[in-house]
Amino acid sequence: AYLIKYQGLSLDEALWMVKARRPQAKPNPGFMQQLKIFEEKIKYGRCDSSSNLSDFFSINQEFEARVDWARKSSSAYSTLGSYITSPGNNKAAFVGGEDDANEIIFGDLPTLTQGGTSSVLSLLETALDYIWLRGVLPVDLLWLRALCSVLERNVCQLYAGDKARKNRSASDAGTSEIISALVKGEISDFYDRWSGEIYPEQVQRVFESLVNIQNT
Fold first, then answer.
1. Rounded to the nearest 10 degrees, what angle do helices 175-183 and 200-209 cross at?
2. For residues 78 and 99, what is the distance between their CA atoms, to the nearest angstrom?
3. pTM: predicted TM-score of the whole model, two decimal places
4. pLDDT one-digit tens code per residue, 163-177
């Protein structure tokens, strides 16, 4: 942002310069979106020299905060899943330890879903953002299945929105359907953020991980 504003570089030029010095730099999609908006404001004179750079990155901070929740939850799942479940069983089922697992790993879900439908939607969108940031890893898909199982058991109404569920009532929609709408770009900004990086084989793996989720 500094290079764009004060050095007059384009976003691509600024990224090239940053990566030349720090090859590991990889801005997340939310931050890239904000940088593009910032570049447009500079380009068309809608941002003066006195503007506070931090004003343009509040969305990135929110994105990081949401993903941080997913990171901590997934880490707890990976750490506790094998301890809680019975040997030989899929960790996502939490066989013999559902209550303990739910409290430790997903104990904050009642608070996070207080906002109803929009909160559930935001939660699942955050989960997908985190999963795509890490490259859709198998261990993260197990965590996603566990998260969806808890939501299915404890949230009565999961609804993906009018675009995704025109012909059914709110109580009929489940987490799999909401996720389907998210990855297809029917609701939220997830699809736009990851445009060009959502591959069919990744989507297939996500859906395969959620088969029969309502029965777990």
1. 170
2. 16
3. 0.62
4. 444 443 433 468 898
